[in-house]
Amino acid sequence: MRALVIGGTGPTGHFIVNGLRERGYRVTILHRGEHEIPEIPEDVEHLHADPYSEEALRKIFATRHFDVCVATYGRLRATAATSVGKVGRFVSVGGAPAYRGYMQPGLYDPAGLPVPLPEHAPLVDRKEEDEKGYRIMRSEQTVFECHPTATHFRYPYVYGPYQLLPREWCIVKRIRDGRRQIVLADGGLTLHHYGYAANVAHAVLLAVDRPEASAGQIYHCADEEVLTLAQVVEIVASALGATLEIVSIPWELATPARPLVMQPLNSHRVFDLSKLKRDLDYRDVVPPREALGKTAHWLMEHPPQPGGNEEHALTDPFDYAAEDRLIEAWEEAVSSFPEIRFEPEPGYTLSYSGPGGRIPSGTKFD
Q1: Among residues 118, 119, 148, 99, which one has the least CA distance to residue 218?
Q2: What is the number of H-type helices and E-type strands within the chain?
Q3: Is 116 left (phi over 0), alpha (psi -120 to 50) or beta?
Q4: What's the DSSP call for residue 187?
Q5: Continuous segment of H or E residues that includes residue 292
Q6: SS3 281
Q7: Please, how many CA atoms are within 13 Å of residue 198, restricted to the half-sphere of its CB?
Q8: CATH architecture of 86-334
Q9: Per-residue CA distances from 347 to 79, 199, 241, 293, 360 (Å)
Q10: What angle do CA 320, 187, 300 make, to 5 degrees?
Q11: Under-70 pLDDT residues of the chain
């Protein structure tokens, strides 16, 4: 059996490549050849071509046939069109920005995506709303027009080695630089679904394993557990043996927190994974809390180039002087805030029986 992976050297690529090898496939990767990584074994064939070029793809598929093609990189519409009749199974990867409101939560009224977000949620259907999301949606349509039995995955933001947008670097770099505080918006309670590279790749491989169940389907893939931003900070700091105090500031003032929130509103982005679990029996292969620790250590050992592509994409200036002024101003505002007394003081409702809640009706219970 022969498998083609378009890409193969990104965060999920080597997991997919080696997963296919373990399943008995002879694997070929198609990429530009600019980023070779040691995780790709020598028995993997390399085709060096531009996966964004329809002409280059046509030349490849003119003389080659594969039992399965996993398209994780390049121009998906061109890949789908040029591979018709040249592949047995077509498994493709796109992204969550296809959803209406993913990039612009204000398109919903009230603002914010449904939680959890199902696969059948509305997609971007007009360029005027979100041109990138519209193009992603059109690519999905082209995949199924060309390959009706294809399986398509809507990737979340992916973390782990080789990640393109290392969110955790916003935390790790501050620890490396000796910072003791980090600003988060509204307690860092925002939920943003991420996927560890090994987990996301595992989902893709399950579609290869179960062609009948996954034929013609679109799936979310992400970690089973969704962590708040505050939990992400605490887990990363703990993994590195550091202490990082979270300074909670209202969203409207928490400017340094924007790169962690990654959208113009601190609303939630949570995917419904029930279809993936039901059809393909998906479960995380690496628990997210463990995966975050692994990622933190990777970034400590492989820091992005200062001012390089990753830091440019994150748009975090690491302006500690400005952060200190903001924290100082916020703490002064809080300390000078007048005490407001309520009579009687509001409670947590009588349904709450935890600390400070409803007084027990007795002292002994069976």
Answers
A1: 119
A2: 13, 11
A3: beta
A4: G
A5: helix 288-301
A6: coil
A7: 14
A8: 3-Layer(aba) Sandwich (3.40)
A9: 59, 42, 37, 38, 15
A10: 50
A11: 361-363, 365-366
Query: b/e map of 88-117 (b: 16 or more CB within 10 Å)?
Result: ebbbbbbbbbbbbbbbbbebeeeebbeebb
Q: Would you state the pLDDT for residue 356?
A: 75
Q: Residue 117: its pLDDT value, please? A: 98
CB neighbourhood size of 279 (10 A): 16
pLDDT in tens, 244-285: 999 999 999 999 999 999 999 999 999 999 999 999 999 999
Among 247, 244, 259, CA closest to 178 = 244
Query: In Å, how far from its chain's centre is CA 12?
Result: 12
Closest CA to 253 of 336, 318, 329, 316: 329
With CA atoms as reference, report the closest residue to 239 among 153, 171, 138: 171
- Predicted local distance difference test score (pLDDT) of residue 365: 60
User: Which contiguous run of DSSP H or E holds residue 89?
Assistant: strand 87-95
Q: Tell me the C-alpha distance between 271 and 159, whole Å.
A: 16
Which amino acid, 264? Answer: P
* 172: exposed, middle or buried (Cβ count in 10 Å: 0-12, 13-18, 19+): buried
Chain CA centroid to CA 302, Å: 20
How far apart CA 80 and CA 139 sit, in angstroms, is: 9
Q: HSE (CB half, 13 Å, CA atoms) of 331?
A: 10
